[in-house]
Amino acid sequence: MTIHDHPLRGALSAEMHVRRLPRLQAPCRMMQVVTVMGETGTDAARAHIEALKRLATVIVPLSAKYAVLLIDGITLVWERHTEFATYTLVRPGDTTELFDPGDFDPVRGVLYADMPGEIIRSTQIALVAGEAWDPAALDLRRWFTDEATVVCDVAGGLARIASDFRLNADGYGRLLIHDRGLLHDEAGQLVLRMQELGNYRNMALLGLPLAQRLTPAVSRLEARLAELTHAVSERSSQDDGLLDELSFLSAELARLVAETRYRMSATRAYAQVSVDRLGRLDIGAVRGYQTLDDFTERRLMPAVRTCDSFSARLDDLSRRAAWTSDLLRTRIDIALARQNRDLLASMDQRTHLQLRLQQTVEGLSVVAISYYLVALIGHVLGAVTIVPHELAMAITVPVILVSVASGLYWMRRHVLQ
């Protein structure tokens, strides 16, 4: 029996197993760097990992989107997404300082060398364990800004997190996770969801500066479109000039839509993933501190709504510009129809005059044709001596006139039919 595999069978199977962290156990230190490369950065990212692969022990072979390498006792997990890549360093064991970037120096130097893209987020993560964890006893102000500290229970109370989600002087954010009974893959899954929440949140926020920068241009286009729409309603307006301005305005709108559509669509998609990850964390409040969902909703949702409002304004403006253009073109078409009607009426009048002139000329042509025929017949009758020449000519003239007029009348009737 011959079995034919689908060309994507292996890739689809591998897709279900990427984007996961190795099994974690407290105490453990992690560092994650997220770089934005765009959709065309796949080759550069792959070449960078290939260079690191020569220095490491391969745990999971390199694929197009995922690889796990062991370098000097530190595990490097590389993931390639649509327009960004993540580099996660995992260093098991306890340290004297929870958030010291120097603990990753053996790998950090070679990792940053020729790293493609631009860093959008970098975080240090400390996974600790203990019987009890009181935020007040830990003196969180040592690591986090007091007024911005977020503390809450996650994973149904099996873990507690603390962070201020700020960029510190060393260039990294900080996340503290207290393991209160996580088993097997639960710690890795928790860290993965926390990081995906932050990464997708930052990627979603990329659309906000773009929307804020282009909002004044959209407002100007809205005001100008309102003026043009009012001008279209005025009968005294110049249609050619209005149509030219509307065409320019529509072209500007098309340029703005082309410039922002991908970023705004990506913002919506990233925000939705962030909300999904937030819902899977099973968050519980800790008295005296804001929770992670409070922090996310207060900062992410307004930005996403701003981007949605910006996209909606562009779409509405495009529809209104098309509607105004249709109105103006309808008015121009009506004006052209009137001109064509007047032209056809004028042509009909000229044709009627030409027919009258032709009929007048036909009367003259009867006389002319008859004159020449009488002359020709006169030459013939001049040779005949039976009938007097003058009498014969007198009889011939009315006969020829009647014959020529009848013939022309017959011809006109048959031609007009």
Number of strands: 10
Task: Compute the CA-based radius of gyration.
Answer: 45 Å
Question: In which range does the helix fraction lie?
Answer: 55-70%
Task: Give the topology string: H per helix, E per strand.
Answer: HEHEEEEHEHEEEHHHEHH
Mean pLDDT: 83
Tell me the strand percentage band. 15-25%
Distance between the termini: 82 Å
Task: Give the strand order of the largest sheet, numbering strands 1, 2, ... along the chain.
Answer: 2-3-4-5-1-6-9-8-7-10
- Structural shape: elongated
The residue ranges in which pLDDT falls below 50 over 5 or more consecutive positions are: none
Output the structural class.
alpha+beta
Largest sheet geometry:
10 strands, mixed
**Number of self-contained structural domains:** 3
Total helical segments: 9
List the SSEs and their pairings.
Blueprint: H1 9-15, E1 28-36, H2 42-53, E2 57-60, E3 66-71, E4 74-80, E5 84-92, H3 105-112, E6 118-129, H4 135-138, E7 150-154, E8 159-163, E9 173-179, H5 186-205, H6 207-233, H7 239-280, E10 284-285, H8 292-382, H9 389-416
Parallel strand pairs: 6-9
Antiparallel strand pairs: 1-5, 1-6, 2-3, 3-4, 4-5, 7-8, 7-10, 8-9
Helix pairs in contact: 5-7, 6-7, 6-8, 7-8, 8-9
Top keywords for this entry?
single chain; 417 residues; alpha+beta; Methane Monooxygenase Hydroxylase, Chain G, domain 1; 3 domains; ten-stranded mixed sheet; 9 helices; 10 strands; 16% strand
What does this structure look like?
- The protein has 417 residues and is an alpha+beta fold.
- The chain has helices at residues 9-15, 42-53, 105-112, 135-138, 186-205, 207-233, 239-280, 292-382, 389-416; strands at residues 28-36, 57-60, 66-71, 74-80, 84-92, 118-129, 150-154, 159-163, 173-179, 284-285.
- Strand 4 (74-80) and strand 5 (84-92) form a beta hairpin.
- The longest helix has 91 residues, at 292-382.
- The radius of gyration is 45 Å and the shape is elongated.
- The model has no long low-confidence stretch (mean pLDDT 83).
